[in-house]
Design goal:
single chain, 713 residues, alpha+beta, eight-stranded mixed β-sheet, six-stranded mixed β-sheet, mitochondrion, fatty acid metabolism, CAT-like_dom_sf, carnitine O-palmitoyltransferase, acyltransferase
């Protein structure tokens, strides 16, 4: 008994000591765990704090734009400190790395915008008109303007960009007229070279290059565009898989996450062409084979199919009504969905285009018109962009404007052109390189059941579009005698030089000055798009009057003053200090509130008779103008904005070439694209002669002569 009790007590002591020991070990374990967790949490918070601080610092640094306004070679201490932006930028940023750090577009003060507007309007108004406008402006500034500004600032507090969504909706999507010619734009192929004369082969390389760009885009491997500071890349998100859907009151933009096929138009028929097979991208040679299958397909278009695309070229309300009535169910809906959900649209054109034959200049003009509007039914103008491949191997693109601005598509097209020719290449026979899988299914023909009533509406839309297209007068003018190299010797900004030349040409062409629109960009800010530079200034008008009046002694000084003014306005527009987007948004707010403003009504009703835009060459490293000078891009263009005005797009190529794309309307007897092109070239030549470094400055010569005369006396 005593032995059992002793064994029991010994067992209890053993269990007690074991539990005590275990609790001690667990206590140590729990203490260690708590220490580790605390360290992890602290490190995580410290890391996120560091990232947040760096992003905040980067955002503050990106908000500084003083460096743009400093003279070359004179750098302030503030700008030197600002150079720290590179420390916070990272070594190999992805395409969207900077998006969260970009500053918001600032809302200018009403008094500043009104002051800049009156300054821009002065050379275009008589004394009485200017006095009347000044009165309206002062009334607006002191009363309604402040109230509208309050609402606009409220929007700017929560919106990523206080302009862009309204600009997209009210300028583009709510327009009820045709988007063809009035809104879309085009990009051309190489000017002198066609890499292959085989249409299917050119399509194979072009489509494959587009897919390569999209893959880089999806992986964010495209380098962000940096002009000392990064530019917003938000517009890149809708390059592919995007379409514009018509509505009776307003259109809408729809973007799909992915699409593995393109819609192809050939001789009045529509096809679905899959660009991926068994989980891989088709090679250029495989795409060429598939394109050839489409071209060899002998089936005719069904009634109403051939000209169906005219619905996208005509007025928007009839298209919206037809879409709702005839394409909302059944086979027509399935086929329309196939087009709208495609990565992009492809047209295999039966025409031959390019600068060729006995009339190269005339053929170049016809090439531009073809890309802008085609036959009015062989493009799908609602798609984000259409790749056009011609019978002789020439290609080009037509782009819808609402989803993004021209520099975005220009970046894509530069990559596609150079990848096509320099990376992918062709065989000696002109075919695409690579092998072909025997198991590829053929492209699918889209089917339609278009009733007679719908066919009548197609014909009506085609009539509207055809009348608009026939009225377009287009001229493409490659200037090869001089370029940026000659302009830089004059120590003048090339863009300012060309803009003043445009003012001089217009004055000689029409005998007066005109309100002038030059597109600038606001992509220094988050979701920024464009701003207007009002290129017709008091300074440029004073120079032109002096030049045309024979006042040679003051011309050089006046020209430099006008160029410096233009550069200042361009920089102001880029950094959020423009005029027109602010006034546009104030106008929208006034309409929401039901308020009428005579000042805003007057400003927003002004006609831009000279609408201009530069297409900058963004990826110069992709081209080799020294070893391959013939592989020169021709740029692109757009239609006239005003019925009695001109549209001018220009691109500066290398050091010795400027390409101009000039548009107007035949229906206006005062406009002629060829005459205006000649006037622009003559104006450029005259300005180069005036500002030539070899030519003595008359004003300095007169000053030296005056000093010498006084010395002699």
């Amino acid at each position: 008994m005593m032995l059992n009790i002793q064994l029991y007590i010994t067992g209890i002591n053993y269990i007690y000591n074991y539990i005590k020991c275990s609790l001690g070990e667990h206590k140590t374990y729990f203490t260690n765990c708590r220490t580790v967790v605390s360290a992890v949490l602290f490190s995580t918070l410290l890391w996120f704090s560091l990232i947040f601080t760096m992003r905040l610092c980067l955002k503050q640094l990106l908000s500084y734009h003083g460096w743009m306004f400093e003279q070359h070679g004179k750098v302030s201490n503030t700008t030197k400190i600002w150079a720290m932006v590179r420390i916070f930028s990272g070594r190999q940023p992805l395409l969207y790395s900077y998006q969260g750090s970009l500053p918001n577009l600032p809302v200018p003060a009403v008094k500043d915008t009104v002051k800049r507007y009156l300054e821009s309007a002065r050379p275009l108004m008589s004394d009485s008109e200017y006095e009347r406008m000044t009165t309206l402006a002062k009334e607006f500034e002191s009363s309604l303007g402040n109230r509208l500004q309050w609402y606009l600032k409220l929007k700017a507090m929560w919106a990523s960009n206080y302009v862009s969504d309204w600009w997209e909706e009210y300028v583009y999507l709510r327009g009820r007229g045709p988007i063809m010619v009035n809104s879309n734009y085009y990009g051309m192929d190489f000017l002198y070279v066609t890499p292959t004369p085989i249409q299917a082969a050119r399509a194979g390389n072009t489509l494959h290059a587009c897919l390569l760009y999209r893959r880089k885009l999806n992986r964010e491997e495209i380098k962000p565009v940096i002009l000392n500071v990064p530019l917003c890349a938000a517009q890149c998100e809708r390059i592919f898989n995007t379409t514009r859907i018509p509505g009776e009151e307003t259109d809408s933009l729809i973007h799909w996450q992915d699409s593995e096929y393109v819609a192809v138009f050939h001789r009045g028929r529509y096809f679905r062409l899959w660009l991926y097979h068994a989980g891989r991208m088709l090679s250029p040679r495989e795409i060429e084979q598939q394109i050839q299958r489409i071209m060899d397909n002998p089936s005719p278009p069904v009634p109403g199919e051939a000209k169906l695309g005219a619905l996208t070229a005509g007025d928007r309300i009839p298209w919206a009504q037809a879409r709702k009535e005839f394409f909302s169910s059944g086979v027509n809906k399935r086929s329309l969905d196939c087009i709208e959900k495609a990565a992009f649209f492809v047209t295999l054109d039966d025409d031959e285009q390019g600068m060729r034959g006995d009339d190269p200049a005339g053929n170049l003009d016809r090439y531009a018109k073809s890309l802008l509007h085609g036959k009015c039914y062989d493009r799908w103008f609602d798609k984000s962009f259409t790749v056009v491949v011609y019978k002789n191997g020439k290609n080009g693109l037509s782009a819808e404007h609402s989803w993004a601005d021209a520099p975005i598509m220009a970046h894509v097209w530069e990559y596609v052109m150079t990848t096509d020719s320099f990376q992918l290449g062709y065989t000696e026979e002109g075919h695409c390189k690579g092998d072909v899988a025997s198991s590829l299914p053929p492209p699918t023909r889209l089917t339609w059941d278009i009733p007679a009533e719908c066919q009548e509406r197609i014909e009506r839309s085609l009539a509207v579009a055809q009348a608009l297209a026939d009225d377009v007068d287009f001229h493409v003018l490659p200037i090869q005698e001089f370029g940026k190299g000659a302009i830089k010797k004059c120590k003048i900004s090339p863009d300012a030089f060309i803009q003043i030349a445009l003012q001089l040409a217009y004055y000689r062409n029409r005998g007066t000055f005109s309100l002038t629109y030059e597109a600038s960009m606001t992509r220094l800010f988050r979701e920024g798009r464009t701003e207007t530079v009002r290129s017709c200034t008091s300074e440029s008008c004073a120079f032109i009057r002096a030049l045309e009046g024979g006042e040679v002694t003051t011309c050089r000084h006046l020209f430099r003053t006008a160029a410096e003014k233009h550069q200042h306005l361009y920089r102001m527009a880029m950094t959020g200090g423009g005029i027109d987007r602010h006034l546009f948004c104030l106008y929208i707010v006034s309409k929401y509130l039901g308020e009428e403003s005579p000042f805003l009504n007057k400003v927003l009703s002004e006609t831009w008779r000279l609408s201009t835009s530069q297409t900058p060459l963004q990826q110069v490293e992709l081209f080799d103008f020294v070893n391959h000078p013939d592989y020169t891009t021709c740029g692109g263009g757009f239609g006239p904005v005003a019925d009695d005005g001109y549209g001018v797009s220009y691109i500066i190529i290398g050091e010795n070439m400027i390409n101009l794309h000039i548009s107007c309307k035949h229906s206006c007897p005062q406009t002629d694209s060829h005459k205006f092109g000649a006037d622009i070239k003559k104006a450029l030549e005259d300005l180069l002669e005036l500002m030539s470094p070899e030519k003595p400055d008359p004003s300095k010569a007169e000053l030296n002569h005056s000093k010498k005369s006084k010395k002699d006396l």
